[in-house]
Amino acid sequence: MADDLISISSDSLTARINPLGAELWSLTDSSGAEYMTDADPAYWIGHAPVLFPIVGAVRDGRYRLDGREYAIPKHGLARGARFDVVAQDEASATLRFTDSAASRAAYPFAFQLDLAFALEGMTLRMTAMVTNAGPAPLPFSFGFHPAFAWPLPGGAAKDAHRLVFECDEPAPIRRIDSASGLLLPNPQPTPVVGRELTPTPALFEPDALIWDRLSSRAASFGAEGGSWLALAWPDCPMLGVWQKPGADYLCIEPWAGIADPVGHDGDFRAKPGVMELAPGAARSFRMDVTVRPA
Fold this sequence. Notes:
Layout: E1 6-9, E2 13-18, E3 23-29, E4 50-51, E5 62-65, E6 68-71, E7 84-89, E8 92-98, H1 101-106, E9 111-120, E10 123-132, E11 138-140, E12 142-144, E13 147-149, E14 162-165, E15 196-197, E16 209-211, E17 218-222, E18 228-232, E19 238-242, E20 249-256, E21 275-277, E22 282-292
């Protein structure tokens, strides 16, 4: 609920985080301008789900692991879990999700997932840490799913906005099957021209744009004469960009994982994008958002 939100602030930014899902609900500058989605229920009420232990969908909502079958929702368990606040001060907060009997029914592993939020001037740093708390290797994927305002505050027109990658991105993109949510087999030509993507609602009629052969680990989103967001995701090799066509947000989603391919019928550990952690090991994933007001 909105009255449960945790608030952290620097002298330049304020972030509000919902313990349900450790979801970033709001990022405002000192003038009160909002850089996150309006969450219009006519389109999508999400703000910035955390994707764990899968990204996207598994075939028929089920996966096989070591000879057993488990049901798990799209994008996994973290988005619907209530995180505990384990540390907080004026400019930072850390929230934690640990396994339970309910989580183990869908994902039979002991784990700890920490989401740390820290404001430093005009930058919000979000760091996820996955820890294997069990005796066996931990297979998982992870992803960020923030929905930024489109248009951003500052007065620039919606159709003037661009997503500018740090590198040229000539590789083809992937799409998902709208009926199953699974990854289609045939890559498609990229809509990126050099380093620049011009987002339009029509691009998202077939759902998300997905880069599984991404060169960049940073990009900027905004418009000339308006505000910009500088984004960095050093630990995620894939990217999804998505909106419900016509909505006033654009999701820019660094991923370390991807949906099942159409026809996938293997063990979960063989799923594309799944990595493993040794017992007691941990792995972190960071996303930085730096606000550049108009």
